Amino acid sequence: MTDVKGMCAPRFEAVRAALADLLGKDDVGASAAVCVDGEPVVDLWGGYADPDRTVSWEPDTLVGVNSTTKNMTALCALILADRGDLDLSAPVAAYWPEFAAAGKENVLVRHVLSHTAGLPDLPGPTTVEELYDWESVTSGLAAQAPAWEPGTAAGYHALTFGYVVGEIVRRVTGRRLGEFFADEVAEPLGADFHIGLSPEHDHRVVPLLPPPSLTDDYAAGAPIGPDGTRRANPGAEIRVRDVNSRAWRRAQIPAVNGFGNARSVALVQSVLANRGSAGGVRLLSPRGCEPAWQEVFRGHDRVLGTPMSWTVGFGRFGDTFGWGGWGGSLVVSDPGARMSVAYVMNRMIDRDRQEDDRGMNIVMAAYSGLL
C-alpha cells in the first residue's frame, strides 16, 4: 500500500485507505482533506510530483485545480451579497452598465452564478493568450447577445462564469477577483489557495500530468450537446501545457486557474458547509450561505448535455453542493453534516476513455466516518 502522510482522525481512517488505494492505481500524487464543523479532521497527501516518481508530493504542494476554482469565485459573490454590497436578484447592468447591451438588460446576477445567463461561449478568443487580456474578454462579453432568454435555460458557462462574476466583483469592490479572494477569504482563514499565482509560489507548483498514453497537447474537450454530438469548442483550446505554463499562473481566469491543495479547498468551502465560519473565523452569516444549496434551475443543461441542478454558484447533488475540475479534482459540501470533502491530484483522467470516480471514492469514504 502506498505511503500516505498527514493527519486523520480515527473515525475517518477509510479516507486514508481510499487515498492509498488511488495512489497505488491511477494516481501519481494527490491530497485529500475533510473538514467537519469548520475544523480539519483529515489532511492527507502522498505520492509524487513528477511522472518519473522521483520528487515527493509535499504538505505544501500546490497544483492547478481547473474548474474547482468556480467554488471559490462563487463564494466571493456570496460574501458580497451577505454584506449587502451585491444584490443577487439585481441586473448585472446595475453594477456594470455596459453589460446591458445586446438584450442583456434583464440578466440578473443569480443568472450568471447559476449558468442560466445565456453566455456559455466566449466572444471570440481563438488562442489561450487572448484569455489573459481581461479588458478584451469582458468587453466582448458585455457586447455579446445572450444565446437564450436569461433564466429560462441553463448551459454550463465553463470560462465565461469567471469573467462575468469577476467583473461584477471588480465593479463592486475595485479589486480583481483574485485580490478580493486573497484579502477577504484566503488570508483570514490561512488558506493556501490562489486565483492566479504570484512568482514566489512557483517552486511549490507541480504540473498537471496528462492522462496515460496522452501528451501535454491533451486539450479540454468540448462538451457533448443534447443531440449527442460534440459542440464546437467555445473559444480557445486549452491544453495541459497551457495550464502548466507561467503565463497561465500569472493570469486572472477565475473560472479555472486556481491553485491549491485538498487542505485549502476543503477549508475554504467548509465556510459554507458550516454556516459561514471555519476555524473560528466568520466570513458570512448563516443565512448568507443558503443560496449555495438552494436550487435555482433544474433541467437539461444545454452545454453539458445532461440533467443538472444549479444553485447560486454550485452544482447541487441531493443534499450536497460543489463542483469539480477538468482532470479529476473535486470538492463536495454537505450543510446538513457540516462537512466539506476535497480531493486534488496531478494525474488527469480523460472521462471519454476511462471512468473517473476517484474524487467520489474519497467523498464516500468520508461519509463512512459520520456513521
Write the layout of secondary structure elements.
Layout: E1 4-8, H1 13-23, E2 29-36, E3 39-47, E4 63-64, H2 69-83, H3 109-113, H4 134-143, H5 160-173, H6 177-189, E5 194-195, H7 240-243, H8 246-250, E6 258-260, H9 262-273, E7 277-278, E8 281-282, H10 286-289, E9 297-301, E10 306-310, E11 315-317, E12 320-324, E13 330-334, E14 339-345, H11 358-368
Antiparallel strand pairs: 1-3, 2-3, 2-14, 4-6, 5-6, 7-8, 9-10, 11-12, 12-13, 13-14
Helix pairs in contact: 1-11, 2-5, 4-5
Strand content: 15-25%
Individual helix count: 11
Classify the oligomer.
single chain
- Span between termini: 25 Å
Helix content: 25-40%
Low-confidence stretches: 223-233
Q: Name the shape in a single word.
A: globular
Main sheet attributes: strand count, strand direction, barrel closure? 7 strands, antiparallel
State the order of secondary-structure elements, H for helix, E for strand.
EHEEEHHHHHEHHEHEEHEEEEEEH
Which structural category do the helix and sheet elements fall into? Answer: alpha+beta
- Overall number of strands: 14
Q: Give the strand line-up of the largest sheet.
A: 1-3-2-14-13-12-11
Describe the 3D structure.
The chain is an alpha+beta fold. The protein has 11 helices and 14 strands. It has a 7-stranded antiparallel sheet, with helices on both faces. Strands 4-6-5 form a 3-stranded antiparallel sheet. Helix 4 (134-143) packs across helix 5 (160-173). The protein is globular, with a radius of gyration of 19 Å.
